[in-house]
Amino acid sequence: MPAISVLDSIIHYEERGVGTPLVFLHGNPTTSYLWRNIMPAIDGQFHCYAPDLIGMGQSGSSSSGYGFSAHACYLDAWLKTLNLQDIILVGHDWGAALAFDWASRHPGHVKGVIFMEAVLKPMAWQSLPPPVAERFKALRTPPGEKIVLEDHDFIEKTLRATVLSTLSDKDIQAYTAPYTTPESRRPLLEWARAMPFDGEPAEVLKHIQCFNQWLANSEETPKLLLSFEDATGSLAINQEAVAWCRQHIANLTITPCGPAKHNAPEDRPEEIAAAINHWLNGYKSL
């Protein structure tokens, strides 16, 4: 797995293939391992990259914290260091939000955006089922911090709850291995606290408002939403959110990929890869 110096740290990443850069961005609490069954199935004319976000996976730690702006800064620097331009971004969860953010700030260098189960827009606490709202609120308190930083089972519990299929012991080990100390789990806590509810955190809201404007007006940039059947009520992009995307995102194609939970690349890797290939082949200019 290659690694390069980025700012004051190191970013590790997977890569394969040659051609147009296709950059896969994971979310929380996953790593580039999320894409292991998808990248090998992408058509050969693309050079696939999948970084571990700063502080996650095998990447180094950040001296600037792990807020959205810090993640965006390290991603910017990593892409610049590799001299990646005219790229296609693929994002899941917070990785999709980072993809939208980068594209909105570099409109001349993005050829397309593919996303699934994205952190997409501001939300209200009252829009969540009460147990879910209470869980996210708890994570913003000192006891919630203790749960994430000191509970060794936090990642495993979260992953198993957000995957429809069964993760093997090998998969769980791959996801949990980087987080052996309380401080190593801080990026996971900061991502959980960054969820945009009722205007907070203001930093995240500002980024989302900017990329929402870009999503609505960037007719020149094709976008693909991979949607899933929500059999358990656990999807971030349910049918209501799909309808919002259809109304508020310019030049959007929507491709259903079957039943899944939030960490859909674990449930539907073959369908996701096939949908990406089909869409890419439809845009010969990409």
From TrEMBL:
It comes from Beauveria bassiana D1-5. Belongs to the AB hydrolase superfamily. Epoxide hydrolase family. GO terms for molecular function: hydrolase activity. The keyword Hydrolase applies. NCBIfam families: PRK03592.1. SUPFAM superfamilies: alpha/beta-Hydrolases (SSF53474). PANTHER family: EPOXIDE HYDROLASE (PTHR43329). Keywords: Hydrolase. This is Haloalkane dehalogenase. The keyword Hydrolase applies. Residues 21-187 form the AB hydrolase-1 domain. Pfam families: Abhydrolase_1 (PF00561).
